[in-house]
Structures are given as structure tokens and as C-alpha cells.
Amino acid sequence: MPTRPPERSAAGRQALLDHYLDLLARWTRVYNLTALRDPAQMRTLHLADSESIVAPLERHAAGRPLKILDVGSGGGLPGVVLAIHHPDWDVTCVDTVAKKAGFIRQVALELGLPNLHAEHARVEELPSAHADVVTSRAFASLPDFCAWTRHHLAPSGVWLAMKGKHPADEISALPVGVSVFHVEHLQVPGLDAERCAIWLCPNAPDAPATTAQCT
């Protein structure tokens, strides 16, 4: 049975997050990984925003390790942040831009994160990741997100989409066979803006799209 990686101290996590933010800022000056340039804005709008789903994922995990696929990860958000917070979570970031996948691989190397991986590909063309959770942050509409990644879910897998305002129109456009089972308000320190996490799961093909309950 594989040995479970030790948990990181709060100081250890913060040191890695600071290192990651420094790498993101330096690479962005050359490769334009993010539109933000100010470190304070990056800390709030990137790091703190990504950290807002750590606690919800911990509750979902209930102590078990998770296999996470982060779609349209860009410069590694939220995937890198999740990998830093939980060495026992196996996180793969997917992006169609080669320089962004290359950056994530460099982050994994420099920060010593063996649980962090990167794929340069269209997510719909990759073989199944058998993920416990497929995440996205400002990636696509909910119907497209679910359609392009459904084959990546493990038998009991779920989707977690990070959104700003409650996406009522996107939820109403979900196809039969996909259900929202929880909408969670997210608190981001220092940010006066709406954020929410949309939890979704596949359900029986003949079930209404937004009413099924997932375990």
C-alpha cells in the first residue's frame, strides 16, 4: 500500500505559495500567462480565489486522497494551489497552450511537487483521467464543461466549476443526464465580488437535469 505523503505545515504551504506567485509573475512578464501584473492583485484574485475551494474539496474528500483534473488551468489556477495544500491529492492541469503546460511542469519541478502534473492538449481528446473531481475556473459554460470532460469522471466522480455570479442561465441549459447537487457561496478574503462553486454530477439519462441528488 503506498505511503501517504505527510501534511505540510502552514508555514511550508505559505512558502510554496509565495514561490509559485513569484514564478507566475516572472514568467508572465515574458509569456503573458495572466493579464494581472500587480503582485497584490495576483495574491487576491489568483491565490486567494483558488484557495476558496480548498475547504469545500476537503469536505468532499472526507479524509481520502483525491484525483483531480483541472481543466483550462492556464498558469495553474486552481490546480497548483490545490497540489500545494494537499500533497495527497493527485492533480493534473490541462491547457491547450503549450507554454502554460510547460510553466506548470516547471512549477512542479522547482517547488518539488510530485503530485502535480500537466497536459498540453484539448481535454476532450485526452484518455479518461478517472478523476474523483474535475475542476475549472473561468473555463467554459457549464454545458460545454460537462460535455467535454464527462469521460474523465471516475464512476463516483463529480464536477466542481468556479464561477462569479450564480450562473442561472447556464444551469438551465444543462442537458438531461447532468445535475447540480450543490451551489456553494465562496468567501475570498480581500475581494468584494460574488464567487460560487457549482457542484455537478452525472445522473440517469432520463432524470431531470437539475434535480437529481448525488452521493
Task: List the defining traits of the structure above.
alpha/beta, Rossmann fold, seven-stranded mixed β-sheet, 7 helices, 23% strand
Can you offer a commentary on this structure?
By secondary structure, the protein is an alpha/beta fold. It has one domain (10-202): Vaccinia Virus protein VP39 (Rossmann fold), CATH 3.40.50.150. The protein has seven helices and seven strands, in the order H-H-H-E-H-E-H-E-E-H-E-H-E-E. Strand 2, helix 5 and strand 3 (116-120) form a beta-alpha-beta unit. Helix 1 (10-31) packs across helix 2 and helix 1 runs antiparallel to helix 4. It starts with 9 loop residues before the first helix and ends in a 13-residue tail after the last strand. The relative contact order is 0.14.
Instruction: Count helical runs.
Output: 7
Sheet having the most strands: 7 strands, mixed
Number of domains: 1
- Please indicate the percent range of residues in DSSP E strands (runs of 2 or more): 15-25%
* Unreliably modeled segments: 206-215
Overall mean pLDDT stands at 90
- For this structure, what is the CATH homologous superfamily? Vaccinia Virus protein VP39
Radius of gyration: 17 Å
CATH architecture: 3-Layer(aba) Sandwich
**What string, H for helix and E for strand, traces the elements in order?**
HHHEHEHEEHEHEE
Q: Based on Cα principal axes, name the global outline.
A: globular
- Strand arrangement, largest sheet? 3-2-1-4-5-7-6
User: For the record, what CATH class applies?
Assistant: Alpha Beta
Distance between the termini: 26 Å
Total strands: the figure is: 7
